[in-house]
Specification:
The model is unreliable at 654-661 (pLDDT under 50). The two termini are 17 Å apart. α12 (355-370) packs across α14 (394-417) and α21 (563-582) packs antiparallel against α22 (588-626). By secondary structure, the protein is an alpha+beta fold. It has helices spanning 13-23, 33-38, 51-73, 90-97, 100-134, 165-175, 202-211, 226-253, 258-276, 299-308, 338-344, 355-370, 373-389, 394-417, 424-433, 450-478, 482-505, 510-530, 539-549, 551-560, 563-582, 588-626; strands at residues 2-9, 27-29, 86-89, 152-160, 179-186, 190-198, 215-216, 282-283, 287-294, 312-316, 648-651. The protein is extended, with a radius of gyration of 38 Å. Strands 1, 2, 8, 9 and 10 form a five-stranded antiparallel sheet that branches. The chain has a four-stranded antiparallel sheet with strand order 5-6-4-7, covered by helices on one side. The chain is built from 22 helices and eleven strands. It has a domain at 146-218: Alpha-Beta Plaits (2-Layer Sandwich), CATH 3.30.70.2750.
Length: 661
């Protein structure tokens, strides 16, 4: 990254910002408070965004979002598996926006249709609620609006199902014998009761009924008998359903307008972002200034633009106290693995980008954990199809490409270990053809020799850790801390490699084994005598002992790679179990059908479970064991001022592929 400072005349500000947004390679930063206070022009500088314009654009974007949501809810087109932005030529995009007023008219009409649907649904919900409220009263034949006669009051109400109706009647009897209290319906929650009483006793009887949980029902907008009301509501619901169907059909008919509306949405986002960025600029009456960051390899393009608008500018390397944004830059193969690194954290700008190392080890570990060539073929074909069918971008593209590489690695390790849907070839040939056909492992079968796989896994783990330690040593040398590299890292190389050499050869080649032991002892002594070199007095010895005690941490890290054995074995064993279960019925048509069913569902389940396990644990080995040796996190992503669009991807006159970054 290079630090960019710019001063220009106010009259070219809008054109310059538009140009910067077009090239999309400059991150404009906000001036720090202390820098503002230290500036001799501090009193003259202020942000320049039109907040009213930004608010208006935000509201318009929200309205269009609502219109697009309405179209999506009633889409006649099947939703794709992956969302991708539509590629639109800039010339075509500009042509569409010449119909801006017409598009806005369409948006408003769609929103009106949405409001009509909302109102109809509210009215329909009220009908449904009213219908549910009167249905328990079907046995009551008197119109619901009749609640009194000349001498009586009529209360329709509900009692809790557990209420003691006989006790309530006895309380009524104490008041008068002239009343009628009958049940017209009941469900698991309530008893539906009708209470008819003389007006002179109404107040007292209602008070007693209330004490027993009697709640009077009120239907303000309903009249007639329950049967009449149900028929009227049913007719009304049918009418509303017809109106909703007509409105839905109208919305579906507007779906063809979606593409133009999306273009307007993205244009408004561009206009809003262009206005918002002005808050990061500092202004006088006739000038503006800003600071930002530009990738070193693209700074010439920025200089050309600034010179076109007669701006003064300065481009320099970052200083020690600068907060430098991070933009990862890797080869075409390694780039997808940036997603794995970003899931953990971006590296600090002054640290090391681990992506190229992660790309190698992650692919190896993923394949070893899934470790079945049949599963690898499926994963490779599925991800290849997705990459070809969908013009993916960003993290989605990176993750699918990572799984594609993982599928290739799985095919390799599956062939090495002899796993082709477990032992499916062996089982099928024996069960259905009476002959034993086996695809032999190129190297060895881990199920038959797990110890060899364990040793190989731990050896790979040691290499992985040594690479991480080597990166750390390189960082220390770069900072001029050669003593730390030699005493704290190279000494561990000696301890670990010497101990391994001694352990492996002590029974077969005593001479070389002794050399290994001597190397390990020398490394341990270096740690003991230099581990506390920054301490004083007796603490020097304590520091050395503490450094030597880290052997437990290294041992733990190395043993973590045993998960390569565990997950690889799990995949193979489960696959063989599924094949065995499927073949238990034997040959014949019935046996073949059962085998196919068990094979498909059993192996599908195995693929899903172990694919997740391979992804998680391959990541874990990077994050904890590998990154723990050198990684400095906390980097902030480089966020250039550019045309961030949601629905369309603007291209030049010739359509281009997706932005795989």
């Amino acid at each position: 990254m290079r630090k960019l400072s710019v001063i220009g005349l106010d009259e070219v500000k809008d054109d310059l910002l538009n140009g910067l947004m077009d090239i999309g390679i400059v991150q404009i930063t906000e001036e720090k408070q202390e820098e503002q206070e230290a500036s001799y022009t501090a009193a003259l500088l202020e942000g320049g965004a039109d907040t009213d314009k930004v608010a208006k654009l935000d509201q318009e974007i929200a309205d269009i979002d609502l219109a697009l949501e309405t179209l999506a809810e009633n889409s006649p087109v099947k939703k794709p598996l992956f969302f991708t932005r539509r590629a639109v030529r800039k010339m075509e995009f500009e042509q569409i926006l010449t119909k801006r007023d017409e598009i806005w008219k369409n948006v408003r009409e769609i929103l009106e249709l949405r409001d009509d649907v909302h109102k109809l649904n509210e009215a329909k919900n009220k009908d449904v609620t009213d219908l549910a409220s009167v249905q328990p009263w079907e046995a009551y034949s008197v119109p619901l609006e009749i609640r009194e006669t000349d001498f009586t009051d009529i209360d329709l109400g509900i009692l809790p199902a557990a209420a003691d109706v006989d006790e309530l009647r006895s309380r009524f009897d104490e008041i008068t014998e002239f009343y009628d209290f009958r049940e017209v319906g009941r469900d698991k929650d309530f008893a539906y009761m009708v209470l008819t009483m003389l007006k002179e006793n109404s107040d007292e009887m209602r008070q007693v009924a209330k004490q027993h949980g009697f709640t009077v029902m009120q239907w303000k907008d309903l009249s007639g008998t329950v049967t009449e009301i149900e028929a009227k509501i049913s007719d009304d619901l049918a009418e509303k359903d017809a109106e909703l169907a007509a409105l839905t059909e109208k919305i579906v008919g507007r779906y063809s307008e979606k593409d133009d509306i999306e273009c307007l949405h993205d244009q408004l986002m561009i206009e809003r972002d262009e206005e918002r960025i002005k808050d990061k600029l500092r202004n006088t009456n006739r000038t503006f200034r800003f600071e930002g960051w530009v990738p070193a390899k693209t700074e010439d393009a920025v200089k050309v633009l600034l010179e076109r608008y007669d701006c003064w500018y300065d481009v320099r390397d970052p200083e020690e106290d600068d907060d430098v944004p991070v933009l990862l830059s890797n080869s075409e193969y390694a780039r997808p693995y940036e997603a794995i690194v970003e899931m953990y954290s971006l590296p600090d700008y002054r640290g090391v980008d681990p992506t190229k190392y992660v790309s190698i080890f992650y692919m190896l570990f993923f394949g070893m954990m899934l470790s079945d060539a049949g599963y690898g073929i499926i994963l490779t074909l599925v991800t290849y199809f997705i990459l070809k069918k969908y013009d993916l971008e960003g993290t989605t593209y990176k993750m699918i490409k990572t799984f594609f590489y993982g599928g290739l690695s799985t095919i390799f390790w599956g062939a090495i270990f002899g796993g082709w849907f477990g032992n499916a070839v062996d089982v099928i040939s024996t069960t259905f053809f009476g002959k034993t056909v086996t695809i032999p492992a190129i190297w060895f079968n881990p199920i038959e020799d797990p110890t060899k796989l364990l040793i190989f896994s731990l050896a790979l783990g040691i290499i992985h850790l040594f690479v991480g330690m080597g990166i750390n040593a390189g960082m220390l040398f770069k900072e001029g801390k050669w003593k730390d590299a030699v005493f704290d890292i190279f000494s561990w190389y000696m301890v670990i490699s010497g101990a391994i050499l001694y352990a492996v050869l002590m029974n077969s080649n005593s001479g070389i084994a002794k050399i290994g032991g001597i190397i390990a002892i020398i490394g341990a002594l270096i740690l003991l005598f230099t581990g506390g070199r920054n301490n004083k007095g007796i603490m020097r010895i304590g520091g050395g002992l503490g450094a030597l005690y880290n052997v437990t941490s290294y041992l733990s890290d190395i043993l973590s790679y045993a998960r390569l054995l565990a997950l690889g074995m799990a995949t193979g064993v489960i696959a063989q179990v599924m094949n065995t279960i499927g073949s238990m019925v034997g040959g014949g048509v019935v046996g073949a059908i059962i085998f196919v069913v068990v094979f498909i569902f059993g192996h599908a389940l195995n693929v899903v479970i172990n694919l997740l396990g391979a992804f998680v644990h391959a990541s874990r080995l990077q994050y904890l064991e590998f990154f723990g040796k050198f990684f400095v996190d906390g980097g902030e992503a480089f966020e250039p001022f550019m045309k961030n669009t949601k629905y369309v991807r603007l291209t030049e006159n010739t359509l281009q592929g997706g932005n795989k970054r």
